[in-house]
Design a protein that fits this description.
This protein is mainly α. It has helices at residues 10-45, 78-82, 118-121, 138-142, 148-152, 179-188, 221-225, 233-236, 249-252, 271-274, and strands spanning 198-200, 205-208, 214-216.
Length: 279
């Protein structure tokens, strides 16, 4: 028969609990130190970078007295803070603010709580183009964390998530488009798949290959409301994106999902149309 475990005294149990609390506290401090190390190095070296003119208190709980020990303590999540200047980024780019199934390579660090955040790929206080960590871009960047099989399961092989920035398939006389619509047209404007081919004509109308629905893009929504028959912009933007105030491909379509191109609101009963049109 197994020997019975000896009972610990109340004093012994209290001592063990205190030791456990101390270990937990040390782990939290170490995590915060790791999260704030990059910022500390930037401050120590006196180099200026992104947000160098911003008030430290806008992001850091420590304000102007931010130190290595508490640099990782922010006044809100990175997603909330970054969206103040980049409101559409979280909706048309890689998801942020979650714990990934597998840990990324060391080049792309998680935050103190193990979340993938904006600063996993971006050096928030950096100076380089796009504030990207390292030199990898596009497909090479994606494959630094994802294996090729992840993209093979997508209808377009993941091409929609690795696009460039130059526009094609747009009439030379078409109105100026927002940056997201131009990225969409990089692939859809010259798609080899006739089901996906889309053209923006000289009147700024996006003509889908299906011909089921054609809709203007590049239109200033606020100006359109002056003619009547439209819901207020502040109401529309509760669900839909209007980059720089313009009607865009991403106003109706999810641009960064596994089910690429999915409508943000169902078209059943013209529900998507009524998100903007008040008729």
């Amino acid at each position: 028969m197994p020997m019975p475990m000896p009972k610990r005294s109340a004093t012994s149990r209290r001592s063990m609990r205190k030791s456990g609390y101390k270990i937990a506290a040390v782990l939290v401090v170490l995590a915060i130190l790791a999260g704030g190390q990059a910022l500390h190095e930037m401050l120590a070296n006196g180099s200026a970078g992104h947000l160098d003119k911003a008030d430290c208190a806008d992001c850091h709980l420590g304000g102007k007295n931010v130190t290595v020990q508490q640099a990782g303590m922010l006044v809100a999540s990175q997603e909330a803070l970054c969206s103040k200047c980049h409101p559409a980024a979280i909706k048309v780019s890689h998801p942020s603010g979650f714990q990934p199934r597998t840990r990324p390579v060391a080049m792309y660090p998680l935050d103190w709580k193990g979340d993938l955040t904006c600063s996993t790929c971006h050096a928030v206080h950096g100076r380089g183009p796009g504030l990207m960590r390292g030199t990898k871009l596009g497909r090479e960047l994606c494959l630094a964390c994802h294996d090729a099989d992840f993209f093979r399961k997508m209808r377009d092989g993941g091409a929609s998530l690795m696009v460039g920035h130059l526009s094609k398939g747009i009439d030379s006389n078409a109105p100026a488009l927002d940056s997201y619509s131009r990225q969409c047209m990089e692939c859809h404007g010259q798609s080899g798949d006739p089901r996906l081919a889309t053209l923006v004509d000289k009147n700024g109308v996006a003509r889908h290959a299906s011909r089921s629905i054609n809709h203007p893009v590049g239109v200033n929504y606020q100006q359109a409301t002056n003619f009547g028959g439209y819901r207020p912009r502040r109401v529309v933007e509760r669900k839909l994106l209007l980059p720089d105030g313009l009607v865009s491909c991403v106003s109706c379509h999810h641009g960064y999902l596994k089910e690429h191109g999915k409508l943000i609101v169902t078209q059943a009963g013209s529900k998507l149309c009524y998100e903007c049109h008040d008729i």
